[in-house]
Amino acid sequence: MPETQDPHVTPSEPSKFVYDFTEGNKDLKDLLGGKGANLAEMTNLGLPVPPGFTITTEACKVYLDSGQEPAALRAEVTEHLEALEATMGKKLGQADNPLLVSVRSGAKFSMPGMMDTVLNIGLSDASVSGLATQAGDERFAWDSYRRLIQMFGKTVLGVDGELFEEALEEAKRAKGVRVDVDLDAADLKALVGQFKDIVAKETGRDFPQEPREQMDLAIRAVFDSWNTDRAKLYRRQERIPGDLGTAVNVCSMVFGNLGPDSGTGVAFTRDPASGQQGVYGDYLQNAQGEDVVAGIRNTVPLADLEGIDKPSYDELMHIMETLETHYKDLCDIEFTIERGKLWMLQTRVGKRTAGAAFRIATQLVDQGLIDEAEALQRVNGAQLAQLMFPRFDETAKTQMIGRAIAASPGAAVGKAVFDSYTAVKWSRSGEKVILIRRETNPDDLNGMIAAEGILTSRGGKTSHAAVVARGMGKTCVCGAEELEVDTKRRCLTAPGGIVVEEGDLISIDGSSGKVYLGEVPVVPSPVVEYFEGRMHAGADDADELVKAVHRIMAYADRVRRLRVRANADNAEDAARARRFGAQGIGLCRTEHMFLGERREMVERLILADTDADREAALGGLLPLQKADFVELFEAMDGLPVTVRLLDPPLHEFLPDITELSVRVALAESRKDANENDLRLLQAVHKLHEQNPMLGLRGVRLGLVIPGLFAMQVRAIAEAAAERKNAAKGDPRAEIMIPLVGTVQELEIVREEAEQVIAEVEAARGVDLKLTLGTMIELPRAALTAGQIAESADFFSFGTNDLTQTVWGFSRDDVEASFFTAYLEKGIFGVSPFETIDKDGVGSLVRSAAEAGRATRPDLKLGVCGEHGGDPESVHFFHEVGLDYVSCSPFRIPVARLEAGRAAAESLGSDSR
User: Fold this and answer.
1) DSSP 8-state code for residue 553
2) Which residues form the Pyruvate phosphate dikinase AMP/ATP-binding domain (predicted)?
3) Residue 289 host element (H or E)
4) Burial class (CB in 10 A: 0-12, 13-18, 19+), 369
């Protein structure tokens, strides 16, 4: 008979699912997760890490795929648990000398607070007395037991956490105390009984007393937490792949809640908000680690630890220096002190604000820990964009109502809301909101994403609100103790009796920690002033941040291959783009030159019945169009200017058919119909299109309306000739024909354009060297790029329209209708209009680039859709081999930085 295969084992299943902390290292994050890999690394460095083991991400993947743990996992966990018991001289949960463990999540990428942790596993009715005897502290034992039931009940058994919180608050009220440390052993023992009753009532079963069952259920709960709504939402927000899974770390417990000589804290080797070196972090005496990150008790600054426990403080400072030198980066550290003994519970490369990222990168270069290429990889375009947002005007008249901890910088203004549901609801209605909470927890993630900023009355720089806000680049102010937050009454009370009701405007400054009543005006960022040339980075009084940005941008510009141009339609935008570092204009949309007063002239052109009418309309437009180009070529003298001939849908230049129909109908009812309106309505009906975006526009309009494109080409050529002759300038115009789908269209327009250019050159006695190319914005153009390249000097990929035509949807319609659902369901990780769809649209860009250059090796390739300023898309365009990207002026610095990062990344890959 054939062998029956275990249904839980697959041929690709790994042979090892559990690693002791002594077996791993920091490079095994894919397998051990970030937490497990770093615990192993610290163990290898000889740092004081409590013994433990890590269950791999591969085990999690098997569980998530099949609904069952791998068949070999239980035996491996037993083997490592027995080894841990032998090391510790204790057995898990034994009555007289219990070993307790924590079960903690740990994915490859940090997801603070998004997945589950359970502490004090192994405690039960039988072992709580043994723990009390072991510690010589009955209160500690019962406190640890109530924590286990509370965390286990909420995390593993799915009990509403508010039920435990309410019971705890009632116990404190009955005792007449404000904080849980003032509850004695008898109070906590009674609370344990209440917690067990809550579990039984809510779940229909007693709290599990078997220690191994507790551990196994906690491990499974951590696996399950990978796919909670909040974890999936966070991954979408941070663009973390959903198939990585989480590791599980089982670590012997060390206790910070053993009295005043014990405590727990979080430390940073540098300030994650500013990047400054010093002693940064929070410490909480007589507490467990979750008390710090949850923000439920206000901490003391880490520097205070020196006066509380100097030996532990000195050892911690030495370890922090060791870790920063070893990781060559800002490190975020969790530690516990158990009766004067320091233990390291976690380290990771810390999340930081955008400003801190730039400062720290240059500091580490100056210290010789990293080189400029690595510094460039330590920052990104999204961070640079954050630094370009405005800040509050310090000279404005303000009413400050509070000041707290500056947790994540920025200037945020919005209406006060007191729960995440309202934050999301109001945000979707177009309101800007500030989310106000006593403290946030992972369930608040939706509201944090929706809000302009976050304000909490509890917690510090290491609380959940602070850590998550920094990761998202959200403004955050924490620990505003003087502000009383009442989430039930939905209001905030400030000193002096000032009350902020839900819906009232407030402003928060994440750089200073100040909270203001009402709206505070903003001023430009110093980084924007630097890019615009109003601040010199070399000046003695230049902002330290500006100096750091200047150094990294200078290196990015030296190494990048991609050139960066601007999308600009007038001289003012062109001049601004040039100040921001643009190396030309990649897209000048001539339709913007036909709006306003000129619209009637275009309307007359389109509706012209005779050649004479059409020529008159074109004659009126020519000098106006030429004057626009003269200004543009002056602003961009010496740099290329790509001018796209008229492209928009026809209806944009015609009267609205509904309004015109109503006007004519009313006039007819009054028997005073206007003959011109009747003729106009007849013409509009004739030209009306059901889908104008796919109708008579672009090259099609140029071919149907004789002389239209010729007029535009003549205006470009005459403006260039005037700039070259009269001003002795260096105009470098590139003429781009839009919406080409076949080479024949391009050939016809090119022939006409070359004839016009030759006439202008002969008349003005100049050699203009104008080039002609096309936009690749239709799938057919991309698929026949090899043919089209025969008549094109350049391609510019119009990725906005290419995305619409590849996907078959209109951006204006679908973003409001179904994009939200697609993002929530994970069909889109990010909008394809924000970051290029590499598999679909990107595949066409790649193949068109290759086919075009196969026909014409010197073919210039660029992109002029807004993807040109998107960080991730810029890396793709570098990889594909384009020559330049073009984007709006404000995004030019971001594109420059990312082009440099893409080049440095490629160089690093090549060297490896």
Assistant:
1) H
2) 71-298, 309-355
3) helix 289-294
4) middle
Q: What is this structure's pTM?
A: 0.79
**pLDDT number for residue 603:** 66
Residue type, 247: A
The answer to whether 424 and 820 have CB atoms below 8 angstroms apart is no
Bridge partners (DSSP) of residue 252 are 101
CATH topology of domain 12-110+228-252: Dna Ligase; domain 1 (3.30.1490)
Count other Cβ atoms within 10 Å, centred on residue 802.
Answer: 28
Fold observed for domain 263-352: D-amino Acid Aminotransferase; Chain A, domain 1 (3.30.470)
CB count, 10 Å around CB of 85?
16
Class of domain 390-524: alpha beta
Residue 409 β-bridge partners: none
| Spans in the chain with pLDDT lower than 70 | 1-13, 292-297, 461-462, 471, 535, 538-542, 594-603, 605-607, 649-660, 662-664, 666-693, 695, 812, 815-816, 820, 824, 908-912
Measured distance CA(315)–CA(591) in Å, rounded: 67
Please name the amino acid found at residue 747. Answer: E
Residue 365 confidence (pLDDT): 96
864 is catalytic: yes
Q: CATH number of 560-649+689-903: 3.20.20.60, 3.30.479.10, 3.90.1300.10, 3.40.50.300?
A: 3.20.20.60
Single out the catalytic residue among 864, 867, 878, 887: 864
Hey, what CATH class is 125-209 in? mainly alpha
- Residue 464 catalytic? yes
Which residues, in sequence order, are CB contacts of 119 under 8 Å at separation 6+? Answer: 102, 144, 147, 148, 151, 253, 288, 289, 290
Strands of 246-252's sheet in order across: 18-20, 52-55, 246-252, 101-107, 117-121
Cβ proximity of 749 and 791 under 8 Å: no
Measure the CA–CA gap between 548 and 542, rounded to whole angstroms.
10
Residue spans per domain, the chain: 12-110+228-252, 125-209, 263-352, 390-524, 560-649+689-903
Token pair, residue 191, equals: 């609370």
pLDDT of residue 620: 83
Number of Cβ within a 10 Å radius of residue 23? 16
- Where on the phi/psi map is residue 505: left (φ > 0), alpha (ψ -120 to 50), or beta? beta
301/289 Cα distance (integer angstroms): 15
Which one from 80, 331, 464, 651 is the annotated catalytic residue? 464
DSSP 183-224: --HHHHHHHHHHHHHHHHHHHSSPPP--HHHHHHHHHHHHHH
